[in-house]
């Protein structure tokens, strides 16, 4: 069987996913909307080989545990009627250990490469479903540009998949990632979500508030209304963190530089720059900018005490096989 290589971009949510309605199938408690990034890429090669007893995973050339990817490969083997084990080689274009989530681009690239290697020819919705089983946010990285993930209603999760809203060229926003703490391990998103669900008095209010945000962000994207997009996206990130802060013990993902970046983004906006922030389950800040504003925002964030590095990127395409 031939090997296949695929690429996928990381994504960041504008309306956050925080909480599962089914932990085993990674079914989200609510929908989410994200943007896929061009320059934070995972490239993965899947080689089904007759002489392997177990699946193997190499991250940037180094052998690492294959535990998280074996279930994904098992499903492709079942679909293809094959029992071939795989060598999987994967690498990220962005600095590893920078505290940027690589599971979204990683599982999206894995699923697309496995689909090509095993010849299963799944359509994009089914690839999204397979990626979701690896990590909830990975379902969105199958598509480029602006992407909406459905919560779905079915118990089997077949309707909990992402779909594209608008491609990257349709509204070429720019994103600046400010790394405030490279290498520090936060509480994982899965553990953070579980703790929030189990102990935060604000969890229900958070989940109930998401559908209205989805409506407003969908409208803002359709109308290219940056002000509305930023207002709802900042609100979604802050509400997600508020629900996590109210867990027991409270989840504090931010450090002083994180907060300094949030204030800087608001100061830039007050002075007329088109920019808003979002923050995921870690201390890095993502600033979403109007086309042409990224370089200026990057300069400002790079000058903040405690910011170790900034990465500038445009929006990018969905996951795809390399020729
Ligand atoms: O899919 P996970 O387990 O990487 O969770 C993603 C959680 C957030 O990044 C905080 C929000 C999101 O929607 O991406």
Detailed description of the structure:
This protein is an alpha+beta fold and 323 residues long. The protein contains 8 helices and 14 strands. It has 2 domains: 4-166, Ribosomal Protein S5, domain 2; 174-314, GHMP kinase, C-terminal domain (Alpha-Beta Plaits), CATH 3.30.70.890. The protein has helices at 70-80, 103-118, 124-134, 189-199, 203-223, 226-245, 256-270, 294-302, and strands at 4-15, 20-22, 27-28, 32-49, 56-59, 62-64, 85-92, 146-149, 162-166, 174-179, 275-278, 285-289, 309-314, 320-321. The strands form 3 sheets. Strands 1, 4, 5, 6, 7, 8, 9 and 14 form an 8-stranded mixed β-sheet that branches. It has a 4-stranded antiparallel β-sheet with strand order 11-12-10-13. Helix 1 (70-80) runs parallel beside helix 2 (103-118) and helix 2 (103-118) packs across helix 3. The longest helix has 21 residues, at 203-223. The two termini are 16 Å apart. Residues 13, 16-18, 32, 101, 103-104, 135-137, 189-190, 280-281 line the site of (3R)-3-hydroxy-3-methyl-5-(phosphonooxy)pentanoic acid (PMV).
């Amino acid at each position: 069987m031939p090997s296949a290589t695929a690429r996928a971009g990381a994504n960041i949510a504008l309306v956050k996913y925080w909480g599962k309605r089914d932990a085993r199938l990674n079914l989200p408690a609510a929908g989410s909307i994200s943007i896929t990034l061009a320059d934070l890429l995972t490239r993965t090669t899947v080689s089904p080989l007759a002489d392997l007893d177990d699946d193997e995973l190499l991250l940037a050339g180094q052998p690492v545990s294959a535990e998280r990817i074996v279930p994904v490969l098992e499903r492709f083997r079942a679909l293809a009627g094959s029992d071939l084990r795989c060598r999987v080689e994967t690498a990220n274009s962005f600095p590893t250990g920078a505290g940027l989530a690589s599971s979204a681009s990683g599982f999206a690239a894995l699923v697309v490469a496995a689909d090509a290697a095993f010849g299963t020819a799944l359509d994009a919705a089914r690839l999204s479903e397979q990626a979701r089983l690896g990590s909830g946010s990975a379902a969105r990285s199958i598509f480029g540009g602006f992407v909406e993930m459905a919560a779905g209603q079915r118990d089997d999760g077949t309707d909990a998949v992402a779909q594209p809203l608008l491609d990257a060229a349709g509204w070429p926003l720019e994103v600046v990632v400010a790394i405030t703490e490279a290498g520090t391990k936060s509480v994982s998103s899965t553990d953070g979500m579980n703790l929030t669900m189990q102990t935060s008095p604000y969890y229900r209010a958070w989940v109930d508030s998401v559908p209205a945000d989805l409506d407003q962000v969908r409208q803002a994207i359709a109308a290219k209304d940056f002000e509305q997009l930023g207002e709802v996206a900042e609100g979604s990130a802050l509400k997600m963190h508020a629900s996590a802060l109210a867990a027991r013990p409270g989840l504090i993902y931010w450090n002083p530089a994180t907060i300094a970046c949030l204030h800087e983004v608001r100061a830039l906006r007050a002075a007329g720059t088109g920019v808003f922030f979002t923050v995921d389950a870690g201390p890095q800040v993502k600033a979403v900018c109007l086309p042409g504003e990224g370089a200026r925002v990057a300069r400002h964030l790079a000058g903040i005490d405690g910011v170790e590095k900034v990465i500038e990127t445009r929006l990018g395409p969905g996951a795809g096989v390399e020729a």
